[in-house]
């Protein structure tokens, strides 16, 4: 089993995975104030809770879109395992052809998602990753990463609405019922969830028109499960997509 870690702006995803199975996937809040020791304790606690010991880790790999925390997490893993994790970045073998204006500017999370999607789905593929930002990426029929869009994430939009409107409360995101809300909280929740679902449906339609064919559809990210079930397109949800991509990259670069 390898330890796979994705450092995102809101959450750090920590998982145990090998080529045949995902053993656990857990999330902790991204906190710039934590030390490497505190993150090491977080990782060890997660493994303990899932019934694994540090000795069960044969290697590790890290993906990060939060540069100030990258070395902190690398040091935390070194402290636990005694070895330095692989880090997704420039120079790593990915097998992915990136057709962008500046390929080096593409976020490591998008690359890892694409690598995993290409293993499990037939291109063209549209990959939706819902976190702090929502990204929708396109992989063409030849398996090239050709671009996508980025827009504010579901939770960012909701928190912004609540913070800027004095009479609107902070709310949870449990599954809504009918789309027409009968009170302020349901109206906000429905607006965010159904609004994001409609946006994703519309983006998929326009992207498929642009590439002139239907694509395989896959979604991941901590907030995706709340929205994908409300979409009209059939979208496969894979909570461990990014970890699967990290496992593939680990094998390519070990």
Report how far the terminal alpha carbons are from each other. Answer: 13 Å
Main beta sheet strand tally, sense and closure: 5 strands, mixed
What share of the residues does DSSP label as strand, in percent? 15-25%
Give the H and E element order.
EEEHEHEHEEEHHEHEH
Assembly of the depicted chains: single chain
Spatial ordering of strands, largest sheet: 3-2-1-4-5
Mean pLDDT: 91
Supply the number of helical segments: 7
Structural class label:
alpha/beta
Determine the fraction of residues in helical runs and give it as a percent range.
25-40%
Gyration radius, in Å: 19 Å
Q: List low-pLDDT spans.
A: none
C-alpha geometry: globular
Give me the count of strands. Answer: 10
Keywords: ATP-binding, Coenzyme A biosynthesis, Cytoplasm, Kinase, Metal-binding, Nucleotide-binding, Potassium, Transferase
Pathway: Cofactor biosynthesis; coenzyme A biosynthesis; CoA from (R)-pantothenate: step 1/5
Subcellular location: Cytoplasm
Main location: cytoplasm
Quick tags:
globular; 7 helices; five-stranded mixed β-sheet; alpha/beta; single chain; 10 strands
């Amino acid at each position: 089993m390898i330890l796979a870690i994705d450092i995102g702006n809101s959450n750090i995803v920590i998982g145990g995975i090998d080529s045949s199975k995902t053993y656990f996937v857990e999330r902790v809040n991204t906190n710039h104030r934590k030390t490497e020791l505190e993150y090491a304790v977080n990782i060890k606690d997660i493994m303990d809770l899932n019934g694994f010991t540090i000795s069960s880790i044969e290697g590790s790999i890290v993906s990060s879109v939060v540069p100030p925390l990258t070395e902190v997490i690398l040091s935390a893993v070194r402290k636990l395992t005694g070895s330095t994790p692989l880090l997704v970045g420039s120079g790593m073998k990915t097998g992915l052809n990136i057709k962008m204006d500046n390929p080096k500017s593409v976020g490591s999370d998008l690359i890892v998602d694409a690598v995993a999607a290409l293993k499990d789905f037939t291109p063209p593929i549209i990959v939706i990753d819902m976190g702090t930002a929502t990204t929708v990426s396109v992989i063409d029929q030849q398996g090239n990463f050709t671009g996508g869009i980025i827009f504010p994430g579901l939770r960012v939009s909701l928190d912004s609405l609540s913070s800027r409107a004095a009479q609107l409360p902070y709310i949870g995101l449990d599954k809504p019922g009918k789309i027409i809300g009968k009170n302020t909280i349901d109206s906000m929740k429905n607006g965010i969830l159904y609004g994001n679902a409609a946006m994703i449906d519309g983006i998929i339609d326009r992207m498929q028109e642009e590439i002139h064919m239907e694509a395989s559809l896959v979604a991941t990210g901590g907030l995706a499960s709340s929205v994908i079930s409300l979409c009209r397109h059939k979208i496969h949800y894979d909570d461990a997509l990014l970890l699967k991509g990290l496992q593939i990259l680990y094998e390519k670069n070990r």
